[in-house]
Amino acid sequence: MIELKKVSKVYGKKRALDQLDVNIKEGEIFGFLGHNGAGKSTTIKSLVSIIEPTSGQILVDGQELKTHRQEIKQKIGYVPDTPDLFLQLSAEEYWDLLGAAFELSDELKQERVEQLTALFELTAQRYDTISSLSHGMRQKVIVIGALLSDPDIWILDEPMQGLDPQAAYDLKQLMQEHARKGKTVIFSTHDLATAQQLCDKLAILKKGQLIYNGTLTELMSQYPEKSLEDIYLSMAGRQGLLKAGEADE
Amino acid sequence: MNKKRLKELIKVNLRYANPQQTMQQRDKGKSGKKLTRSLYRQYIYSGLIFLLIYGVVLIFFDFSAMPGTFTYYVALFGVIAFSQGISAIYNVFFESADLPNFLPLPFFQAEVFISKIMVVVLAMLPLVLPVLLVFILTALRAKVFPPLAIVLGLVAFGLFLSIIFSLCSFIVFGLTKTQLFKKHRQLVTSLLLIIAAGTAVIGVMTMNQQADATASGNDRRPIVFLLTFFYSLTQPEQINGWLSWIGLLILTVFLLVIFSKLFLPKLTEQLLASTQTVKKTTKKRRKKQNLHQLLRHYNTQLINNASLLMQMFSNSVMLPVIFTLSFGVSGNYDFNQLSLNFLGVTFLGGVALATITTNQTSLVANAISLDQQNFLFVRSLPLLLGEYLKEKFLFVIQIQGTLIVLITIIIGTVFSFPVVHIFSLSLGGLLGTYLASLYYFNRDYRLLCLDWTEVSQLFSRGAGNLGLVFNMFGSVLVSALILTFYTLGVYFAPLITNGVASVIVVLIVGVWLLHYKSVWEKVWI
User: Cβ-count burial of B56 within 10 angstroms (0-12 exposed, 13-18 middle, 19+ buried)?
Assistant: First the structure.
């Protein structure tokens, strides 16, 4: 169980997150949805210890992140929004680093690398430097790294960006499979179709504020005549424009 | 602390601290453990070479009877290590900007920092190994029981390294904490790296003068605060020695405690702040800018990076400046009365200097590749590629030209040339720079590399570092030969020699210009 209690993040005069309250249960696929600059990445980065919230609490299984960082980090596999990490390492060296960080035995790490590289068709590129790989390939390297420890909580920031349709499909399958094992999957996206396909629950953010938190079915049932796109845009988008569009029809 | 994790972190930092070597070894098919071993080996080799070069000299000195010389050598290698330490700490901790990558991973902060510190120490180690030799030799010559002499030498060396590391850390971490660094990062970084390089230059000059002094057998006046090392090694059983050891230990512990209490606790925040300060910059729109002005502005922004400029200028400018200053200061050269007959010689001297300062690490030799992916995008625009490249060439040639004029003025002044000869030297420098730039700009286009991650990757294109060294020494050798013959010719038959030289220069310049005109005409189309 992950709890965000009144989490805020302020940069100078800008409030990137404003009193965010969210609960995420085990086995759930939870999506953060919002426009650019809505606060999705700030939330994700706060969860994975890259950003320290200005105020509020983040609890994982009842333990506060601030005081139990090491134990909590051991439970999390993270896929950042840009896969441009450790560019001078080869994919294999990057996975070695993660294997050491999560204290995996060499045998276990190797076994998982074999499985995942075969799945993502990356076996031939495992000794290439990450800098020499395409965006999509880099993303696959990072995804494999995040899954090496079979984490209890898998956090992905805009994970579908740059993936080819096959890899995107495989990743979605993996996310669902991970949740089926009783593990938590949290991701951010601005792709409504992905959110609709995957999310058990979602939070819609707008300018750092939570404007919806609940299941997709509940949301859709409130506006039975509208598509998810219409609902989302009427909540988070430029409503004036939407109305003008509707008037034209 | 987990040993396996520390080992992996060191492995990663080693690669980041040696991007060029890493790339070269990867090209040879090495990765994983093999690559790590070859990176370690490179430190060992450079340590051994340094030890061999200085060891041969140092082994003949009886330092136990020459406390002044002892302290000077310790100071000299200390200065070199200090210079290397500052740039290594800055590069490994700040320039790599990789801390955010480690934050989500379950590493302890201490593990990340210790791995970085170890890589910094490893970078400093080869350069200070002669100090270890000096320490052990001094103790042995002072008739200390040999095994004890070795142990004392090793311990004193450890303390020496810790002191240097702490001092470097204070400067780098202290400076990067200031408001000045936060506001003017590029400027402060340039200053920091210039100070680091400058200390090395002073060190080299001191070494030259010191070598002359010790060759005559006289001991120098000792540097008092370094005598503690001398007494701790030569009189370990006496009160002087004991007091020295206590003093050194207290100093080292004091410095390390300050480092761990004052800097380490806030280091994560400091490093994060330095990597995340992406300031929102708003610029006033300049009205009526034509393409020439826009491209000029773009090219200026492209090179507006302190470490990039430092790497380029230190490789192409520092060497001639170091040579000149160390020769000029240690010798007694005065060309004040140089006859006008030798104007051609100084002119050719300028050309020769330009062939040394303009090399594969110069700005002009990497200007197109600095564009990275922008270059491919520019190609897609309805813009004449020739015009675009011409703008770029004109921009960098102005910088290269300014540099060579400055260098020739410094050299002319140090060697007391008459003003007219300095002018001739500068003109020669400008011509040489222009000709060499034509070659190197074209070379950059031929060996275009747009997907580099470290600018040093660009320097090793073509014949690599070995090529750079051969090129530089080849230029020096050929230039020295030509200048010697030319000088002799002018000495015996000035009119004929200057006449023949002028015709040859005009012919070579003409052929060179025609060749590159045709080369670029093919690119323009």
Answer: exposed
* Cα–Cα distance list, A61 to A24, A75, A185, A202, B439 (Å): 10, 10, 15, 20, 65
Number of neighbours of residue B504 by Cβ within 10 angstroms = 11
Nearest CB to A93; choose among B31, B100, B108: B31
ipTM of this predicted complex?
0.80
Asked if residue B150 lies in contact with residue B44, where contact means CB atoms within 8 angstroms, the answer is: no
C-alpha dihedral sign at A166, A171, A174, A175: negative
Beta bridge partners of A15: A10
Among B2, B32, B103, beta carbon nearest to A92? B32
**Cα nearest neighbour of B9 on chain A:** A97
CA-CA distance, A177 to A183, in Å (whole number)? 9
Chain A's closest residue to B23, CA to CA, is A88
Cross-chain residue pair B453–A127, CB shorter than 8 Å: no
Q: Provide the CB-side half-sphere exposure for A59 (13 A, CA).
A: 12
Predicted confidence (pLDDT) per residue in A152-197, tens digit: 999 999 998 878 888 889 899 999 999 999 999 999 998 888 988 8
> What is the chain A residue with the closest CA to B10?
A97
Q: Which of A127, A125, A147 is nearest to A136 (CA)?
A: A125
First-to-last CA distance in chain A? 45
Q: Do B2 and A127 lie within an 8 Å CB cutoff?
A: no
B323 falls in which pLDDT band (50, 70, 90)? low
Restricting to A residues 157-216, those with a Cβ less than 8 Å away from any Cβ of B are none
Report the Cα–Cα distance between both ends of chain B, in Å, rounded.
Answer: 62
CATH class label, A2-248: alpha beta
Is the Cβ pair B5, A78 closer than 8 Å? no
In A2-124, beta strands by DSSP E: 2-11, 14-24, 29-34, 55-60, 63-64, 76-79
pLDDT at res. A241: 44
